[in-house]
Amino acid sequence: MPAWWSGTGLDLLRTPDGAIVAALAHRALGRHRVNEHAQLRAWSEQVRLLKVTCRGFENPAELRILFEFEIPRLGGRIDAVILLPRAIVAIEFKVGAERFDPADTEQLRGYALDLQDFHAGSRRHPILPVLVATNAQRPHAIVPILLPGAAPFLQANGETLPGLVRDLAAAPSLTVSLPDHAGWEHESYRPVPNIVDAACHLFLRHDVADLLNTRAGAQNLSITADRIATLLNAHRQAGTKLVCFVTGIPGAGKTLCGLNAAFAGDDTMRAAFLTGNPSLVHVLREALVRSVASTAAERRAARHRMESVIQALPRFRDHGVRSGDTPPERVVVIDEAQRSWTETHAVSRTRDKPVPLDRSEPAHLLDIMARHQGFCAILCLIGNGQEIHDGEGGMAAWSEALAQRPDWFVAAAGAALEAPEPRNRLARLPGLSIEPSLHLDVPVRALRHDATPRWVDCVLRGDAEAASAVVRESGPVPFRLTRDLAALRAGLRARARDQHRAGLIASAGARRLRAEGLGCEVPHMDAEAVARWFLDSWVRDRDVRASDALELVATQFSVQGLELDQVGLCWGGDLVRNNGGWEVRSFRGTRWQTARDADKIAWRLNTYRVLLTRARFDTLIWVPRGDAADPTRDPARLDAVAAFLRACGVTELETETIRPSETEPYLIPS
User: Fold this and answer.
1) For 499-542, how does the pLDDT look when each residue is reduced to its tens digit (9 = 90+)?
2) 326 in Cβ contact with 288 (< 8 Å)
3) Can you give the residue ranges of the Schlafen group 3-like DNA/RNA helicase domain (predicted)?
4) Are 608 and 385 in contact (CB under 8 A)?
5) What is the DSSP string of 630-649?
């Protein structure tokens, strides 16, 4: 991602202003841009100001200056970057401006965070975003200590910019020096794709490590993927049957590992990805079709092909039970395998169906695959703590089925045997092999805060002290609180720049949100509607049915297994605070009823675990104010939820939007 012009500070001083502007204009013409006089004048002023800045250094050769540094993901360019010995200064110029526009600040914030998240040369260094309004009143401030990551905003005008850069170069630093200024602009830039984009890349046979090599979790993920491939090959050569459990925290990449295994299958080891989540089936199939087909005929052929790769688990199960045939797939990947039905639930739910079941789902799936002579494998992706419906048996259902089928070899991480809840715990089965690499404990979904799953766990346990301790130890969590629906939408739109996608989500049990104006849900069983919500765009297509139109609300049944860049979580009256703890409620008729059953309470808490872990970047939480005249929207209960979230370390969206603490304390003193 080279800049349009780059060189040392000494190179800048030795190069005529006109030559630099001409080089920038030449690159602009190559992109079919018109060289308006205003742009040429702006470049001339930028060159002049940065030359003044470089003259203030005893050794300008220790600086590197880059003009028009491209940021592919956000579809823009940083006006200028100055590489100091120990920091990266990203500058957005507004030549002639007399004030600091919040929209410009937000744009620069995106650039700085994108460098932090995705540019290999910037990961371990301070990134200092500076907004320069050349004709603004002279600001006054202090200089921050240089820490790795994107710092709060700095401001300067044309007069104060040189002094600001000198002070930043001399600022106290807790970081190492940038090793290679000349090579910095050519360092790899690779945004971590969302699950839909990742599926498309994996289908075209990219590697999981290649997809995620800018994240700390990439090594963990690639080790897991490699170990799965090794186990499958070893059991294929031995002609044995294998069940492999991949466990992990929410957002750690279990689905990516499963897709990688499913798409890697060949004629001798045909594989399929099975999921009981219809939304995931619909969205992945449609995304894959769109990625490989352009004409109507190609799309028809692609859809047929995708039906064999991404399959609905109930259809696979029912066909296998009804037909008695040996499936063509030697390997099946079962997404969210902890949600497989217990025997009692399976029998009850299918008693009057065309294909009645007489045992648990794990038992049926094991027996269907066991029809293969010799090798076959089931790869179970386990998301403990994400059971969201009755009858889901967890690891205990798989343990019970495997205990009765000793011909299967089992591979799992030790963590699978140590879960505190019996339902989530794998039994110590005969033929069990402990494989530590099959547990994923580094989140790759939450791009800016690895401690998000741990913080969410503390919140849902009702432990505000433990949650706030996570914040103290690991820094601010990517959650913001508002009590205003309009502010929620405004905050999401401000963050959903260019390729960042936003959407509203809520619990299916949050029935009284309709009184707040949010009664229109995405029908999670409607394949076309779900795919449209995730894949189409209000920004690009003006499609009011898309998630970023912020009109339709998706429930946990639509979003489990999927994700958005920016999430607006609409908190419902089905999970409120009462007497210092969580109260789970269901709306019946005209009033709320408090749940007493332990399973129902666990399912509701897990619902909010799913909702709180859907964002790749930020989750904005809207807790309605309620209405004292409406007993179904008791303000006291909702106020208690908001107060508890604040106690857990969630900051106010309004405060964060205004950012008073991110302007005044970081301005250069007069």
Assistant:
1) 678 999 999 999 999 999 887 888 877 878 888 998 888 877 88
2) no
3) 242-624
4) no
5) -GGG-HHHHHHHHHHHHHTT
Cα–Cα distance for residue pair 27/267, rounded to 1 Å: 48
Least confident of 243-247, 290-294, 324-328: 290-294
The Cα 126–Cα 169 span in angstroms is 11
Nearest to 447 by CA among 119, 184, 131: 119
Query: Can you tell me the distance from the alpha carbon of 400 to that of 620, in angstroms, rounded to the nearest whole number?
Result: 41
* pLDDT for residue 208: 56
Quickly count: other Cβ atoms within 10 Å of residue 146's Cβ.
Answer: 21
Instruction: Classify 481 as helix, strand or coil.
Output: strand
Q: What pLDDT is recorded for position 662?
A: 34
Question: Quick one: pLDDT at residue 35?
Answer: 57
**Are the beta carbons of 140 and 669 closer than 8 angstroms?**
yes
Task: Give residue-wise pLDDT tens across range 414-452.
Answer: 989 988 788 888 999 988 999 999 998 776 666 666 788
What CA–CA distances, in Å, run from 507 to 369, 448, 636?
35, 25, 20
CA distance 210 to 198: 10
- Whether 478 and 448 have beta carbons less than 8 Å apart is answered as yes
Specify the DSSP class assigned to residue 243. E
Is it the case that residue 291 has pLDDT exceeding 90? no
Give the type of residue at 169.
Answer: A
Number of H helices, E strands in the chain: 25, 24
- Do the domains 195-440 and 452-658 sit in the same CATH topology, yes or no? yes
Is 452-658 in CATH node 3.40.50? Answer: yes
Q: How far apart are CA 185 and CA 173, in angstroms?
A: 22
Tokens of 284: 């992945």
Q: What is the pLDDT of residues 374-407, one digit of tens each?
A: 999 999 999 866 656 677 888 999 999 999 999 9
**Tens of pLDDT, residues 226-235:** 899 999 999 9
Beta strands in 206-287 (DSSP E): 241-248, 271-275
Q: Is the pLDDT of residue 32 over 60?
A: no
φ and ψ at 310, to 5 degrees?
-110, 110
Evaluated on CA atoms 51, 54, 59, 65, the torsion sign reads negative
Q: How far apart are the first and last CA of the chain?
A: 37
Length of the chain counted residue by residue: 670
- Residue of 588 and 256 predicted with greater confidence: 588
Using an 8 Å Cβ cutoff, are 564 and 501 in contact? yes
Query: How far is the CA of 153 from the CAs of 10, 91, 136, 156, in angstroms?
Result: 27, 10, 16, 10
For residues 669 and 591, give the distance between their C-alpha atoms in angstroms, rounded to a whole number: 59
For the entire predicted model, the pTM comes to 0.69
- The beta strands (E) that lie in 85-125 are given as 88-94
Write out the two tokens for 652: 């106010």
Average pLDDT over residues 80-91: 93
Q: Is 273:255 a contact under the CB 8 Å cutoff?
A: no
Q: Tokens 């936003």 correspond to what residue? A: 502
- In the chain, domain spans: 3-191, 195-440, 452-658
Other beta carbons within 10 Å of 226: 15
What are 90's strand-pairing partners? Answer: 81, 129
> Please, which residues bridge with residue 585 across strands?
594
Q: Indicate the CATH number of 195-440 among 3.10.530, 1.10.1740, 3.40.50, 3.30.70.
A: 3.40.50
Which residues have C-beta within 8 Å of that of residue 30, sequence separation ≥ 6? Answer: none
